[in-house]
Amino acid sequence: MKFKPNQTRTYDREGFKKRAACLCFRSEQEDEVLLVSSSRYPDQWIVPGGGMEPEEEPGGAAVREVYEEAGVKGKLGRLLGIFENQDRKHRTYVYVLTVTEILEDWEDSVNIGRKREWFKVEDAIKVLQCHKPVHAEYLEKLKLGCSPTNGNSTVPSLPDNNALFVTAAQPSGVPSSIR
């Protein structure tokens, strides 16, 4: 598992850990998404993201996390939503990012051997559903009608109490300890 020595966890008013992530797409068509290997379970794929630092805006945190975990830079697009994981007490701001630069070596590839791979959206959903169902929900929401921005990269600003939350469903029979 990845360890950050100076990491400070940040929480919202209800005690949820504040996180940020990006669905990183190869193009504005949003048909191929980049997944990274999990630091905890290297044979499993995840959406790059992580905890927000104090005073950090969600969009900036999302861009930083994909740079560290996936070794990519790009154009930050729309906020897809704020996804809530009741089991882990996380709230994750999930953005769309169109990749414009791919680094050959990046922080997590060097430090922990993290890998990355492009997946068709449908394949990514299948890969994520078994061990990261909340991450699969990001892509499900994308498919449900959040159409590509066609070059418009405005991100709405949301107050802390906004009702744009998506609550993750507990898959039956799967203990939360294995997710």
TrEMBL record:
<dbReference type="InterPro" id="IPR020084">
    <property type="entry name" value="NUDIX_hydrolase_CS"/>
</dbReference>
<dbReference type="Pfam" id="PF00293">
    <property type="entry name" value="NUDIX"/>
</dbReference>
<dbReference type="InterPro" id="IPR047198">
    <property type="entry name" value="DDP-like_NUDIX"/>
</dbReference>
<dbReference type="GO" id="GO:0034432">
    <property type="term" value="F:bis(5'-adenosyl)-pentaphosphatase activity"/>
</dbReference>
<dbReference type="GO" id="GO:0005634">
    <property type="term" value="C:nucleus"/>
</dbReference>
<dbReference type="GO" id="GO:0030515">
    <property type="term" value="F:snoRNA binding"/>
</dbReference>
<keyword id="KW-0694">RNA-binding</keyword>
<protein>
    <recommendedName>
        <fullName>diphosphoinositol-polyphosphate diphosphatase</fullName>
        <ecNumber>3.6.1.52</ecNumber>
    </recommendedName>
</protein>
<dbReference type="InterPro" id="IPR000086">
    <property type="entry name" value="NUDIX_hydrolase_dom"/>
</dbReference>
<dbReference type="GO" id="GO:0005737">
    <property type="term" value="C:cytoplasm"/>
</dbReference>
<dbReference type="InterPro" id="IPR015797">
    <property type="entry name" value="NUDIX_hydrolase-like_dom_sf"/>
</dbReference>
<dbReference type="GO" id="GO:1901909">
    <property type="term" value="P:diadenosine hexaphosphate catabolic process"/>
</dbReference>
<dbReference type="GO" id="GO:0046872">
    <property type="term" value="F:metal ion binding"/>
</dbReference>
<dbReference type="GO" id="GO:0034431">
    <property type="term" value="F:bis(5'-adenosyl)-hexaphosphatase activity"/>
</dbReference>
<keyword id="KW-0963">Cytoplasm</keyword>
<dbReference type="GO" id="GO:0008486">
    <property type="term" value="F:diphosphoinositol-polyphosphate diphosphatase activity"/>
</dbReference>
<dbReference type="GO" id="GO:1901907">
    <property type="term" value="P:diadenosine pentaphosphate catabolic process"/>
</dbReference>
<dbReference type="GO" id="GO:0000298">
    <property type="term" value="F:endopolyphosphatase activity"/>
</dbReference>
<keyword id="KW-0460">Magnesium</keyword>
<keyword id="KW-0479">Metal-binding</keyword>
<comment type="similarity">
    <text>Belongs to the Nudix hydrolase family. DIPP subfamily.</text>
</comment>
<dbReference type="GO" id="GO:0071543">
    <property type="term" value="P:diphosphoinositol polyphosphate metabolic process"/>
</dbReference>
<feature type="domain" description="Nudix hydrolase">
    <location>
        <begin position="17"/>
        <end position="143"/>
    </location>
</feature>
<keyword id="KW-0378">Hydrolase</keyword>
<dbReference type="GO" id="GO:1901911">
    <property type="term" value="P:adenosine 5'-(hexahydrogen pentaphosphate) catabolic process"/>
</dbReference>
